[in-house]
Design goal:
The two termini are 40 Å apart. This protein has 14 helices and 20 strands. Helix 9 runs antiparallel to helix 10 and helix 13 runs parallel beside helix 14. It is α/β, with parallel strands linked by helices. It has one domain: Glycosidases (TIM Barrel), CATH 3.20.20.80. The strands form four sheets. An eight-stranded parallel beta barrel has the order 3-4-5-8-9-10-11-12. Strands 18-17-20-15-14-13-16-19 form an eight-stranded antiparallel beta sheet.
Length: 462
């Protein structure tokens, strides 16, 4: 694939010679960086069927070195189980302990995980606890595993016609599900789960508390992490805060940004959205995963690429995703600009040849920055800075200063409240298309910066 050749060339140039004020030269490593703490990690969502032309674990394993070079720390695999035939949804499992034959075998999964571990990458599986395919053999062999309505019929949750809801009041069902969760850890050495539809009212909090405790102690010395597909800050989901999940979705944060872009962008409103996100995040026990897109946003509801969701603000919002708060998610293909909607029912392929070099170089730089700056750890403090332009937002996290213009015009903007001194500029929207670069700057306490329309800059105090 074209992007693979391009990526190889970029890796060869990973150490870049940079011009600094005063004529000194330094090098900046933007590829293959490692996080300074678990709080500085980046997660990558992969649909095995879409990730390569072959759509197999064997092919995906060959591309793990590229993800390692990009700086991926955790791979979240979308459901890998055999699918029900009604809609071919990956979220309609036929067998919790088997692999979709189109993707490969259990041995292929083992090899994928083993190679990921060699590269220092963790692997989480997508887990769908609430329902299974309506063709699942349990419908015939264990009809008592399913919930029923007043008429005695098995229930299609939310009207999803291809799946049937499981009954967590049945201890035998619970035993079967728990056995499958343990199977993937013990058999393939996976490192955690992204749990689908955790907000389901039919799965008791006590269930999650029990199984999460079991999984975390299943293999002595092995760290197991759990992420819930729900926004625990939502008042309807607050009960889940006691379940023991390590991460949840910053769902309302993403939704608010998407609605803002659809209705007419306003930087002051974005600032309010961000502040509300910080305030709510401070009240929950778990850490947050932040994202601009994933399989739902990209394909469902008619399909939305980053461009369709956010327009030209997609670059500035990408900077926000990686520098503001939480663990950033990359959906497969997002690193090259999210060029197309991906039908995950048919495993539509990522169009790797359609590279947005500005986005790719921005993401590469942001991952390195997120990895190497302790101030960008998931829960580190954030302080907004005053700007002379209402269309420009600026924030500071200890020694990192971020400035993003959402204006449709070039602007000279003054930033108040930073500490005067020597800074390295890690990211410059005006030059990033040509590749990552770094320059030294001496900034006063209230610097005036030149930003292009939709421009952005990131500075690190020395």
């Amino acid at each position: 694939m074209v992007v693979m050749k391009y990526w190889s060339n970029m890796i060869l140039a990973a150490v870049l010679m940079l011009s600094a004020c005063g004529g000194a030269s330094k090098s900046l490593v933007v590829d293959s960086t490692q996080p300074v703490s678990d709080g500085n990690r980046v997660i990558y969502q992969m649909n095995v069927g879409a990730f390569t032309a072959e759509g197999t674990f064997q092919a995906a394993t060959k591309q793990l070195a590229r993800l390692d070079s990009l700086g991926v720390d955790i791979i979240w695999l979308m459901p890998i189980y055999p699918r029900g035939a009604t809609m071919n949804s990956p979220y309609a499992a036929m067998d919790y302990k088997a692999v979709n034959p189109r993707y490969g075998t259990i041995d292929d999964v083992k090899a994928f995980v083993a190679h990921a571990h060699q590269l220092g990458i963790k692997v989480w599986l997508d887990w769908v606890p609430n329902h299974v395919a309506q063709e699942n053999p349990w419908v015939q062999t264990h009809p008592d595993y399913f919930t029923r309505n007043d008429k005695g019929n098995m229930i299609h949750p939310h009207g999803w016609g291809d799946v049937l809801e499981l009954n967590y009041q049945n201890p035998e069902l619970v035993k079967e599900v728990n056995s499958a969760l343990k199977f993937w850890i013990e058999t393939c050495d996976i490192d955690g789960y992204r749990c689908d539809y955790v907000s389901s009212p039919t799965i008791p909090v006590a269930y999650w508390q029990d199984i999460i405790a079991q999984l975390k102690t299943l293999v002595p010395g092995k760290k197991i992490e759990m992420m819930s597909e729900t926004d625990i800050t939502d008042r309807h989901n607050q009960r889940i805060d006691s379940c023991g999940f390590d991460y949840d979705y910053a769902w309302s944060f993403q939704g608010s940004m998407a609605r803002l872009c659809r209705r007419g962008f306003n930087a002051d409103t974005l600032k309010s959205i961000c502040q509300r996100f910080l305030d709510k995040s401070a009240k929950v026990k778990n850490r947050r995963m932040v994202y601009l897109t994933n399989h739902d946003q990209n394909y469902n509801d008619g399909g939305n690429t980053l461009r369709k969701f956010y327009g030209e603000n997609r670059y500035g919002l990408t900077v926000l995703e990686f520098t503001f708060y939480g663990m950033p998610l990359i959906y497969n293909g997002q690193e090259i600009g999210d060029p197309d909607t991906l039908n995950y029912f048919t495993d539509a392929k990522v169009k790797w040849q359609r590279v947005d070099h500005k986005m790719l170089n921005t993401v590469r730089t942001l991952i390195a920055l997120h990895h190497q700056q302790p101030a960008l750890a998931e829960s580190a403090p954030v302080k907004f800075l005053n700007t002379s332009c209402s269309d420009v937002l600026a924030w500071q996290r200890d020694n990192v200063v971020v400035v993003v213009s959402f204006a449709d015009y070039d602007t000279e903007v003054t930033i108040d409240g930073i500490e005067a001194g020597n800074y390295q500029q890690w990211l410059n929207s005006q030059t990033i298309y040509n590749g990552p670069s770094l320059t030294k700057n001496s900034l006063p306490a209230s610097p005036t910066l030149s930003l292009e329309a939709k421009g952005y800059a990131v500075y690190v105090k020395q």
